[in-house]
Amino acid sequence: MDKKIISTGAIFGMLAIILGAFGAHALKKVLSLEELSTFETGVKYQMYHALFLVLIGTMKELSPKAKKTIYYLVVFGIIFFSGSIYLLATNSLNSFDFKVIGFITPLGGLLLILAWGVLVVNFLKKNS
């Protein structure tokens, strides 16, 4: 599972760099400053949580069950949170109105928060 977690984190990190460069160069010409800032928020949170996955994959203190739970919370959190932000930020470039999926963004954020919560709870249990 550790290899899977670290690999997924590395892939999400690589994609964050690609999307950040895409936003800074290609999208800079077609998005407003507000839309570009929104897109960058998605990139930042994706990178933060890509690094979080790499960290989780290297931690020996966490049980396999906790790692698996955190893994799935982060993967779906990134997809829902950052993914929906990318779509919402580039909404003006599409004929489909991605605002209808706007409710997914806070759901993704909640999943990311829960992942950190699982880490905290596991450390508190282990240290008591």
Oligomeric description of these chains: single chain
Shape: elongated
Q: Give a quick account of the main beta sheet: strands, pairing sense, barrel closure.
A: none
Number of helices: 4
* Contiguous uncertain segments of 5+ residues: none
* Total number of beta strands: 0
Query: Into which percent range does the helicity of residues fall?
Result: over 70%
How far from one another are the termini? 26 Å
Strand-pairing-aware structural class: mainly alpha
Average pLDDT reading: 92
H/E element order: HHHH
Please compute the radius of gyration using only Cα atoms: 16 Å
Strand content: under 5%
Could you walk me through the main structural features you see in this protein, from its secondary elements to its overall organization?
With 128 residues, the chain is mostly helical. The protein is 78% helix and 0% strand. The chain has four helices and no strands. α1 runs antiparallel to α2 (33-58) and α2 packs antiparallel against α3. The two termini are 26 Å apart. The model has no long low-confidence stretch (mean pLDDT 92).
